[in-house]
Amino acid sequence: MGAGIVWLARGLAQVPDTDAWLSPREAERLAAMRYGKRASEFLVSRFAAKLALARAVGVEVTDVADLACIEVARRPTGAPRALVSGEPAGVAMSSTDRADWAVTVVGTAAGSPGVDGLEVGCDLELVEPRSPGFVRDYLTDSEQALVAEAAWPVEVTANLLWSAKESALKVLQTGLRRDTRSVEVVLEEGDGRDGWYPLRVHPVEGGTFPGWWRRSGSFLLTVAANRPTPPPVSLEQPDALAGASPSHRWLEEPLRWGRSPRST
Q1: How far apart are CA 134 and CA 110, in angstroms?
Q2: What is the pTM assigned to this prediction?
Q3: Which of 207, 198, 159, 197 is nearest to 180 (CA)?
Q4: Is residue 231 a contact partner of residue 196, using CB atoms and an 8 Å limit?
Q5: What is the pLDDT of residue 118?
Q6: 8 Å CB contact between 210 and 200
Q7: CB 43 within 8 A of CB 253
Q8: Average pLDDT estimate for 227-249
Q9: CATH pick for 1-118 out of 3.90.470.20, 3.40.190.80, 2.60.40.1940, 2.40.10.10
Q10: Average pLDDT over all residues of the chain
Q11: Closest CA to 14 of 254, 251, 239
């Protein structure tokens, strides 16, 4: 069976003012967060994840409180695990957030109620300056050569390669606990179908993680999987990331002291 990936983006400004969409466990976790940055990231990533999962698995949402039945738990590796009413949702998922925006991708095995071994990873980055030291310390020799030779500015190529690495490390369920140079990114030729361009990532132990990347204004989004997939399909048109502007609202309240970072 083939595999397919859908995706959805949300910004912090779109997160509801009420916490009714959080499960009791999530609300308790949020209340314990002292720092505004961590709370903002939690809110925007959870909201994007719940909306994406609801649409992907068919949870009817007539009010934001209906999202409370959806939770993102953690596997022993730390990788996310989607639950609906406490039961596994039967999909693969990955979430990422950057600069008050979050993206969740959901993967399914076409024609199957489960994921059939599918693993996915995604990462959202800004197009921003990267130092020569960053390129030298975190990219492989081949990737450094790509940065030097690419027609794009360094801030595009370096961040694109970094993002693809993060997506692949999520597929491996290690995250940044593993050396970023242990996976190498290759950018492939493509026609930009639906805004997506192909890539592949090679772990040092062998194998290939095929993936996709796209640019939306100031943001770069990458997706990787442990098997070939068509380009990810947005769950809404136009997608919310189109025209999105990065922000850092947590700076208004670095220490929360029990208050929500959404209040101003």
Answers
A1: 39
A2: 0.93
A3: 159
A4: yes
A5: 92
A6: yes
A7: no
A8: 95
A9: 3.90.470.20
A10: 93
A11: 239
